[in-house]
Design brief:
24% helix, binds adenosine-5'-triphosphate, six-stranded antiparallel beta sheet, 2 domains, alpha+beta, single chain, ATP-binding, elongated, Rossmann fold, six-stranded mixed beta sheet, OB fold (Dihydrolipoamide Acetyltransferase, E2P), ABC_transporter-like_ATP-bd
Length: 355
């Protein structure tokens, strides 16, 4: 397995810049998940590591060795795509053994590698089938089997589960996690799926506009998002925000909303009184309480079975609350809520978090 070092990577397509200097060190055996909105450059970064895309400037090192000019086949990296990219005219076994046959491995080695991967992935009964005779989930397993057989230095996954239905995704997600536990292979995984990112990652890399916004464990990003972008991106439903001015009087601080109401906040060092600021709270952290400090007008109720998403308005600002209290299926026209201080996030006008 291998460490991967990404140093000051920039990428432009013609005059169009896509990545603006990405630095990232991926440890040997680590599972990294890249997340970010469509077009932020996740796939481009992955493809540059694989060697499928040129680097405009900066260096990529695998196990300390610069690979910028190395052909994809010489990087010893396996990529698993959303589209599976299986050879339709080959059996499952032949698809899986293809790279070893290219390398002229011995028959015994090939049989043992394919057998081992097939056993791990439950593919043994399917080895003689062609891809078209497989379900989507089975094809995805073959694509992973093909990657495992190569025993590459690292695995790159580009939204590998996004063509599968919800149940199968769940199942495959757990399988990928288990496989990583077994193989401890350095892995970089691109996804749009929050749950995949949270459950699979050792560290999540949140990207936006070709810039890395935060790198950290899933809980670090959830508990202490570094900026407004990460705060709004991680978590579902997304964090609620109140924009206003941060005002200090003595030992106390408030956020004054545009309509003149104030919300008490913990006083922070280093934020100037009177400066623009945004307060954030996650829907699941709002407390429903008969004697709560704030009144919320209930606009819409979305029961999910697991809980209830309530669309409410507080001080004229729309926000969401998540609750597992079934009485909330039929709330009155208004409810009362508290926003606990220890769950409030404060961001300065440039979007940076303040602790
Ligand atoms: P998604 O989540 O939608 O897959 P992404 O974050 O993976 O998005 P990329 O596929 O890396 O984004 O694309 C980043 C930007 O680069 C996009 O604006 C895209 O249109 C552009 N782009 C990607 N490939 C090329 C190319 N070959 N030529 C020109 N522009 C490209």
């Amino acid at each position: 397995m291998a460490s991967i070092d990404i140093q000051s990577i920039r990428k432009s397509f013609g005059a169009f810049p896509v990545l603006h200097g990405v630095d990232l060190t991926i440890r040997d055996g680590e599972f990294i998940v890249l997340v970010g909105p469509s077009g932020c450059g996740k796939s481009t970064l992955l493809r540059m590591i694989a060697g499928l895309e040129d680097v405009t400037s900066g260096d990529i090192r695998i196990d300390g060795k610069r690979v910028n000019d190395l052909a994809p086949k010489d990087r010893d990296i396996a990529m698993v795509f959303q589209s599976y990219a299986l050879y339709p005219h080959m059996s499952v076994a032949d698809n899986m053994s293809y790279s070893l046959r290219l390398r002229r491995s011995t028959k015994e080695k090939i049989a043992s590698a394919v057998g081992g991967a097939a056993a791990k992935l439950g593919l043994e009964p399917l080895l003689e089938r062609r891809p078209k005779a497989l379900s989507g989930g089975q094809r995805q397993r073959v694509a992973m089997g093909r990657a495992i057989v190569r025993q590459p230095k690292a695995f790159l996954f580009d939204e590998p589960l996004s063509n599968l239905d919800a149940r199968l995704r769940e199942q495959m997600r757990a399988e990928i996690k288990k496989l990583h536990g077994d193989l401890r292979a350095t892995s970089i995984y691109v996804t749009h799926d929050q749950i995949e990112a949270m459950t699979l990652a050792d560290r999540i890399v949140a990207m936006h506009g070709g810039i890395v916004q935060q790198v950290g464990s899933p809980l670090e990003l959830y508990d202490r998002p570094a900026n407004l972008f990460v705060a709004g991106f991680i978590g579902s439903p997304g964090m609620n925000f109140f924009e206003g001015r941060y005002l200090v009087s003595g030992d106390h601080a408030d956020l004054r909303l545009p309509n003149g109401t104030t919300m008490p906040v913990r006083k922070r060092d280093g934020v100037e009184s009177g400066s623009a600021a945004t307060l954030g709270i996650r829907p699941e952290h709002v407390i429903l309480a008969d004697n709560g400090a704030l009144e919320a007008k209930v606009d819409l109720i979305e029961p999910t079975g697991f809980g209830i998403i309530m669309h409410v308005t507080i001080h004229g600002i729309p926000m969401k609350i998540f609750s597992q209290d079934r009485r909330m299926l039929k709330p009155g026209p208004t409810i009362r809520v508290d926003l606990p201080q220890d769950k409030l996030h404060l961001f300065e006008s440039d979007g940076k978090r303040v602790d």
